Amino acid sequence: MKLSSPISGAIFCILAGQGVDATIALDVKSSSSIRQAASTLAYDMVRYYTGNNTGDVPGNLPSPYYWWEAGAMFGALVNYWYLTGDTSYNNITQQAMLHQASSSEDFMPLNQTTTEGNDDQGFWGMTAMRAAETKFQDPPSTEPGWLALAQGVFNTQAERWDNQTCDGGLRWQIFTWNKGYNYKNSISNGCFFNLAARLALYTGNSTYSDWAVKAFDWVYNVGLISPDFQVFDGTQNTDNCTAKDRTRWTYNAGVYLLGSAAMYNHTNGSALWRDRTMGLLNATDVFFVNDTMYEPCEGGPKGCNVDQRSFKAYLSRWMADTAVLAPFTHDIIMPKLANAAKAAIKVCNGGDTGTQCGQRWSTGAFDGSLGVGEQMSVLEVVQGNLIDEASGWVSAVQGTGTSVGNPNAGGGDRRNPNGLVITLPTAADKAGAGILTALILAGVVVGTVFMILP
Ligand SMILES: *[C@@H]1O[C@H](CO)[C@@H](O)[C@H](O)[C@H]1NC(C)=O
Ligand SMILES: *[C@@H]1O[C@H](CO)[C@@H](O)[C@H](O)[C@H]1NC(C)=O
Ligand SMILES: *[C@@H]1O[C@H](CO)[C@@H](O)[C@H](O)[C@H]1NC(C)=O
Ligand SMILES: *[C@@H]1O[C@H](CO)[C@@H](O)[C@H](O)[C@H]1NC(C)=O
Q: Membrane-spanning regions, if any (predicted)?
């Protein structure tokens, strides 16, 4: 994930279709109305996806979208199926996830390894976890299960926990040559915490809950979560994590909220995790203005970049899930999602279809900003209103979850994160292995030269 990308932002701020009458009807009290609206929103989102065209790469979105956002989009499509029952996009979603999972079963595909950060990998990992929790259509038996892919991401990230600086935490970046390697940020640690908590809930294995506790404690103790549960962006390890970038984002609040709700549920309702869940939920109030959800960059001088325009999707998604796992939050969360959805749908009267969504839900009409993030955000807040009708969270602990796991999934890059040693599994691949290794070594050399010459 990148902090800012003004160029791509400008490209996608196309002023088109403004003034078209609202064409998506939504009655948040009617599930058929919600399903109908979600279907239109999902259709307009998937139109951006080209990965299932002949010659294109499954799982990738075209420029200007980064790889992580595709992972997040497939998470929205798993949810779309789970909440509406519409299977239209299940096959492209399954294909995309399996293609990007990589041979090491941890979403570290070679095409991404020069730029991939812990948060990027984390988003794909949470999508695999969601597939396990909802009993999304399983991969064929020759492929790893959804649970195994989530475990693969967890395993690689647990090995990257960095005790060398700031007494712990994950760095933003995986590879030394990437800008942001010295940054320890809330989203990277939050994805890891969220995934660990949900793996604990699903499997009952205490390794995961121990790591969830450790990750939350580190983030809290270093001051990235304040005593009143505001979540700040991150901190540089170059000053021992003293100074903080205190920018707040909806998705950071959401990733810790759902992780805490999962720990609350896993611990059968402990007071500690109840307080944390409640505190984090109360702290989301800053993102609710005039009965709708608001991303602080919307009011800033530079606006929101392509990544940031998708963030409201994740707070919406994770609030709906929190209402299920921590039932004491249900009656606080559901009215907020209903009101936010009512406001959000009003901005979906733009683009060539006349149903595409803008970005700022507070404007009451399409604001000229079009894209995957805009679509995904409204889709998640609208479909989140169906959460009470969904079939329910499954787990291996309850005997309801059947996704195939592999506690040892994830590999290749684990022992030496900069070595990029990828093990190729089949004999047929062996001939290509030498070439691949050579290419990887060349990549490392280029990376090193780049670092020496600033
Ligand atoms: C890609 O998937 C979409 C949505 O399911 C579908 O409409 C389209 O026909 C697919 N394209 C190809 C080339 O299969
Ligand atoms: C990597 O890129 C190549 C060339 O574009 C493509 O054929 C391959 O499918 C990509 N692999 C993944 C996992 O995206
Ligand atoms: C855990 O979540 C389930 C729904 O999946 C819910 O029925 C149960 O009450 C929750 N447990 C606690 C302690 O709240
Ligand atoms: C629990 O998870 C850890 C980490 O993946 C693994 O090493 C261990 O074997 C698991 N224990 C069981 C009982 O599955």
A: 431-453
How confident is the model over 72-100, as pLDDT tens digits? 999 999 999 999 999 999 999 999 999 99
Radius of gyration of the chain (CA): 21
pTM: 0.89
Q: Pick the ligand that lies closest to the CA of residue 116.
A: 2
Q: To test the ligand 1 pocket, which listed residue (43, 44, 48, 52) has its Cβ within 8 A of the most ligand atoms?
A: 52
Strands (E), 159-276: 183-185, 234-236
Distances (CA, A) of 43 to 23, 60, 82, 375, 432: 14, 17, 16, 9, 39
Q: Which of 205, 206, 406, 408 to mutate to test the pocket of ligand 4 (most atoms within 8 A of CB)?
A: 205
What digits encode the pLDDT tens for the residues 384-418? Answer: 999 999 999 999 999 999 999 999 999 764 434 44
The residues near 208 (Cβ < 8 Å, ≥ 6 apart) are: 154, 196, 197, 199, 200
Pairing of strands 183-185, 234-236: antiparallel
